[in-house]
Request: fold
Amino acid sequence: MEPRLPAHLEAAGLIRRVAGEGGFAAVLHKGDREAGTLLIVLCENGADARAYERMPDADGTRKWHCSRQQDPENKDDFNRYIARRAEQDGDLWIIELDIAQAERFIGLDETGC
Reply:
């Protein structure tokens, strides 16, 4: 099992990095400071939102996977998904990063799901 950085430190680091590059970042929902997990909402100028969560792989590592992409015709569906995830997991941190090519901040090369 990989050692994990406490959730509040990882969230603070992401927010600081994005702000340092001129983007906007915010905590949408606070989870457990130490053992919480992160759901990251990535977008650019408030549009084309994507939700990423870490999921366990067969080799035991945890990698970022896109769990939902906002439909431009039905933005409420995406917002309901995010709210539902917060209700389902009280330990979950939801962080929004609004900056160009936001996937790079979670170690991914591609933009979009």
Q: What stands out?
A: The longest helix spans residues 7-20. The chain has one domain: 7-104. The two ends are 27 Å apart (CA to CA).
